[in-house]
Sequence to fold (337 residues):
Amino acid sequence: MAKIKVAVNGYGTIGKRVAYAVSKQDDMEIVGISKTRPNFEARDAANRGFPIYVPAESVEAFQKAGIATKGTVDDMIAAADIIVDCTPGTLGPEYKAKYQAAGKKAIFQGGEEHGLTGLSFNSTANYQESWGAQLSRVVSCNTTGLLRTLTLLDREYKIVNAYVTIVRRAADPGDSKTGPINALEPSVSLPTHHGTDVKSVLPWLDITSMAIKSPTTLMHIQTVVAKLSREVSTEEVVDLFSKAPRVRLVSSKDGIKSTAQIMEMARDLGRDRSDMYEIVVWKDGIKVVGDTLYYYQAVHQESDVIPENVDCIRSMCKAMPGPESVAKTNATLGIDH
Ligand code: NAD
Fold:
């Protein structure tokens, strides 16, 4: 069967990871990535052998920098079956019009509104809803994290309501401009958009959220309080999470007491860019009291959405059923289950 031709528009934090993950799939190929400036990330793309496409006005700058380009962004769109749009979360409407005019399928990221595509994607929750779609949107890192665990809880025990507090990393590791650097900053516009975004995939879920920005670049931590429709034991929930796709249970007794040790463990795993694709749940931080469940989970913001993008490509291109795609993506990225 012909490989799916994938283009990645925007080779930043998310785009470069999507390009790597796609290049590991034997049923897909990267036909191009786009860069606006000939910086170190453009050189990384060249070193990894990805064909580079640029806006027409940037061709000269790339020539001067000695980085070979294959054509313009419009040429790249023409060469692809599907475009994974990883541009900053404001260019969606402009690029959506271009993709549609070229008759191409496109995936947007969580920085864009659900309304842009009318369809939001998560492998665990709704793989089938994007089947054959022209446009879809992989939800944000926080929403992906919440959906990985809440979907299973809702299927198994029916969630009556859920309250989430997110301690958000202030900046990505490669960012030296964003803050705060010495303060905790509550998001005072309440409830925050995170709960609403979960509802873009699970509209029936009663969920609300609050968030605090914290001076770290490592990960987000989410605290979840969920009222279930019946009493369950803590052990049952531990067992459910231990089988959940892309959820990794850790224990503070094993020396993992913070996001620092999680990222050290990620470095030990030896994956590309030391990424932690799984949502990390503290096993000894799971507790059920009556019908109310409490737990903590950590989200590696720049990588949990990467396997979701690979699965979303397969769903939109009608390549294979969800469980097969999840297993294939996991195997190629070194994710246990
Ligand atoms: P980024 O700023 O790291 O990368 C964006 C890339 O797009 C850059 O390489 C930039 O040069 C390029 N770009 C800018 N203008 C362009 C244009 N007109 N045409 C083509 N390319 C252009 O951003 P990011 O963090 O990778 O975020 C991308 C999307 O992913 C956003 O929607 C964001 O909300 C979402 N997201 C980010 C994270 C994260 O942790 N960074 C996590 C989940 C989802």
Summary: The longest strand covers residues 159-169.
